[in-house]
Amino acid sequence: MPFHATVLTLYPEMFPGHLGQSLAGRALERGDAVIDAVNIRDFATGKHRNVDDTPAGGGAGMVLRADVLARAIDAVSPVEDARPRLLMSPRGAPLTQSRVRELASGPGAVIVCGRFEGVDQRVIETRNLEEVSIGDYVLSGGEPAALTLLDAVIRVLPGVMGNADSGTHESFETGLLEHPHYTRPQSFEGHEIPKVLTSGNHQAIEAWRQAQSRALTRERRPDLLEDDQVAK
Description:
Layout: E1 3-9, H1 22-30, E2 33-39, E3 52-53, E4 63-64, H2 66-76, E5 85-94, H3 97-104, E6 108-113, H4 121-126, E7 130-133, H5 143-155, E8 187-188, E9 191-192, H6 202-220, H7 228-231
Parallel strand pairs: 1-2, 1-6, 5-6, 5-7
Antiparallel strand pairs: 3-4, 8-9
């Protein structure tokens, strides 16, 4: 079974976007993954098909209506649907590589792209939406965040990367940032490739890479270090 993502959005034309290219594009062509973009506005009623309204209690902006969004979710994700329901939100739990792997091992996901000031809290609670964030910043909508999540998931699906080992030595897969990389030419503007990498000593190369990963993580992302032993 392919990984099946259903994206609920006010801008379905934004999908598949860049995912139609390169590795993800080939995965979609082969049927390893399927992305369906569904317009939330199709589930609005009334003459103007409004999907939002002013926030209760006052304040700036507009809020996606619970009734409209609930109808959309129920239509694409019936009770027996085993796929998790995700809401791309800056207040959500940070997306991690381990969560990406979990999603990739499942049947897919229903992804809600928020707009305006956010989504009525009642639909979040009644439809069990898992709020997910891709970083500590605010976007104009959930669509770019959904594309980022899908990019991360599709690339680790079985068979998507030509070399299965490629995805296992990257940043966050081991809890550390990835080591530096080098290739030809041997000398570039007076800077040489570290000699250990051309030594042919695979044990020494692996030790160097591990040391570099720890040093970079300690410098740039000390929050990833789980214990003092790794930090040393």
